Structure formats: C-alpha cells, structure tokens
Amino acid sequence: xxxxxxxxxxxxxxxxxxxxxxxxxxxxxxxxxxxxxxxxxxxxxxxxxxxxxxxxxxxxxxxxxxxxxxxxxxxxxxxxxxxxxxxxxxxxxxxxxxxxxxxxxxxxxxxxxxxxxxxxxxxxxxxxxxxxxxxxxxxxxxxxxxxxxxxxxxxxxxxxxxxxxxxxxxxxxxxxxxxxxxxxxxxxxxxxxxxxxxxxxxxxxxxxxxxxxxxxxxxxxxxxxxxxxxxxxxxxxxxxxxxxxxxxxxxxxxxxxxxxxxxxxxxxxxxxxxxxxxxxxxxxxxxxxxxxxxxxxxxxxxxxxxxxxxxxxxxxxxxxxxxxxxxxxxxxxxxxxxxxxxxxxxxxxxxxxxxxxxxxxxxxxxxxxxxxxxxxxxxxxxxxxxxxxxxxxxxxxxxxxxxxxxxxxxxxxxxxxxxxxxxxxxxxxxxxxxxxxxxxxxxxxxxxxxxxxxxxxxxxxxxxxxxxxxxxxxxxxxxxxxxxxxxxx
Length: 489
Fold this sequence. Notes:
The protein is of the alpha/beta class. It has three domains: 3-155, Alpha-helical ferredoxin (Fumarate Reductase Iron-sulfur Protein, Chain B, domain 2); 170-265 and 423-487, FAD/NAD(P)-binding domain; 269-417, 3-Layer(bba) Sandwich (FAD/NAD(P)-binding domain). The protein has helices at 13-22, 25-29, 41-44, 58-66, 75-78, 86-94, 98-108, 112-118, 141-155, 178-189, 206-209, 218-230, 247-252, 283-292, 317-328, 349-357, 426-430, 461-464, 469-487; strands spanning 170-174, 193-197, 234-236, 255-260, 266-267, 280-282, 309-313, 333-338, 361-364, 366-373, 379-392, 398-411, 414-417, 421-422, 456-458.
C-alpha cells in the first residue's frame, strides 16, 4: 500500500452539502486568512520555554475552516508527504466537531500537533491550495492542524486509532525521531509488536534536542509519544544500536524487521582557520545543551557558552533556532551570516520574520573566511568575505561569488556553525553487506524504503542526509507499508 492509498476517506455527503449551502463560494473566498496570535517580541526574547505562536481560538479556527472550498480533487492532500485527509479534518472543524477532526488527522499522522507547528506547509500542502489560482492566500492548513491536535490534547480525551489484531510479529525501530515514530505508529496500527530503541535519555530525537521549546514545546511531543504508547509501542532509552545492541542481537531477540531512523547527528564545519578556537561550536551541540539538557534553566547544571556578540553561520531553520536561542540566552547582538541573499534562505519565512522581530541582524551575501582569537584562545572576531550573486548553479540558484578585496572584520565572542549535518555513521559502518552511498547514507528502494538487507528498512536523515520532519514521517509511512507487505503474506 502506498501513502496515497488511504488519503481520502469516504465523505459524508449530507453534512458536506449542508456546509456548502451554508456559505457560497463567493462568501468563502471573501474571508481573509487568519493571523496567528503571537507573544510580543520584547517579552518572548526573555524566555526559552514559552511558545511564540499562541494558537487559534475556536472562533478563529471555524472561520478559517470556512474558507476551504472542499475541492473535488484536493491537491492539498497530494502535497502532503504523509497523505493527510486535509479536507476531511478541516470540514469537521467547520462544523464544530473538533474531536472528529483530530481523529481524521490521526488516521495517517502520528504527530499532528508537531506537524502543525514545524512543517513547511507553505512549500507543501498550502502550496497546492486552489486559492493561489485566485491570487489569494491559501487556507491556513498548518494552523488548523495544530488547532485540532491541541484541542484534543487540552481536552484530555485522546482517541486511540483503530488497531488491527496482534499478528505476533516483532519489529524494531532504531531512533525515536519523526521517521521512527511515524513508522512505529503505522506498524502498531497494523498489529505488529513494535519496540523503539533510542540512544539518548529522552524519546523524540530531533523533536526534543533540535527544536527549541519556543517553537515546539516538549510537553506537546510527550503527548504525541503517549499516543503511540497507547497503541502498544514500547520504548527503550539509553540504548545505542550498533554498540549496546548489534544488528545480530536484534535478530536474537526475535525481531523480524528493523527500521533504521538514526538521523543525521554529525555536524559539518567549513574547514576555515580558527574553527577550533574556544567559542566556536556547532548548532547541534548548542541546541542539544539548551533544549535537551536544560542549560540555562533554574536547577540544571548543564554548562553552555553565553555570548554577547553571537554570529550564527547558515540560513536554514536550524540556524534560525540557534540565533533566536542565543538572543534568549542573553546575546545583545545576534547575527545570521549567510553567503546568499535572504530570498534564497531555506528557512521558513515565518522563522525569518520572527527572528527579525526579535532583533536578529541578517548579514546576507557574506561568508566567513577566518576566525580570530585573543591570547586565551577565545574567539574575538570573524573575517567576512562579501559576496555577490553570479550565474545559477545546478540547483537553479545564482551562485555567490567573492567580491575581490571586500573583507570585513566583525567582533564576536561566540560563533555557532549551522551549515548542515551528516548521517550518523554508526549503523552503516556496523552492518556487513549493507549498501551505503558515498555520502554515508543507507541506500534504499524509493517505493518501500527497503535496503540491501532483506529485513532492514531505513528513512529520514539516514537516507536523505537531511530532511524536514514531514518528509521523514513520509519515509516512515512508506517503510511501514513496505515492511508489512513483506512480513505478512
């Protein structure tokens, strides 16, 4: 079964027709897109734990849901990597049946409250909305997804998805990030006995260590995990597959299939002079210390560097998370240094907007070439090469090229490098016969996510080298469909 096989549930024609007649298409398209309530920028930079986006009220959600035209061929669903029945859950919000909206979401998504917050809807489901053809803003699908999931969470009445009878087959998952959790949920619903092995002391993977609580509160992630536990998924913490347990050990324990979702936790650096100075660190280390290990919180002893003049190198969402965290950790001057233009930044537009509101400076078309240190070996300045856009590269983006002689020196006392990550090499290097690419990723079939080892499937960053939460979840769903088909014949 492919992801798209279960995307559109049978529609209740009667209530849908009632909704259509209650408001004409003209009335619906005249409704302006809702604006997400936010914490004031001056206040929010004082706290790492309070979420910036405050969520929609019931009234706002119902009005925004009314904008949906319930297209006969909903392209929004086609644009969703996990195939959520988007018109189905939105129309349930419009008629006020919020619990049913959450149930529709959970038919295909293991993490709706997470996806409603961090998925790049503007590049996926919302990019396919028919409103674009009318030169209007799309339906706020992400905001509505968050509303439905949050409404269920706050009500305390959590519906458990329908689960097939137990089939007696055990499967193991390596890593509890979005790919692993999505796979686990789908396999549990199919009747498999699922155990997730996590190397860290907290379940959630990048959702816990990589994304700050001002974007994704840990309590939200925990509720999603509790939903998987209710389905029967078991979790084992502090267990490193490839060290604590080997691939062979998993077979000895009776697992008939293994899904590897170990992520990409190996940070990359640029290889320029001065990267070994005190005060230069990766975004992985910085965010893990703050998000997962409690650095800076009252009662926690985890050390973390605190800079007053902080530069973050990179232009993705992780860079935005890092620079916004630095502001909250006391930076007076927080800077994004990016070698291309702002228009070419891979970060979400919303994250860039929030960063600017919080006082972050954007030094675009600049590239660091060297870091300078004081006599104690601590970084004190960075040398930036000014750039200009040249001819387009293979991706279609105009390549940045140096402007000869245009080098500036800027004082810094902390640099956070966020220029990408590489896959965790532990599992690819520990399984003999496993096909691995030159980039260190596991080679899989695109349709089933099956590797060169018949019982081993993989998805997320360990396959892609870098993926969004929702793409990783899509991999998990594909792998679950592929493995289930292979194990139950």
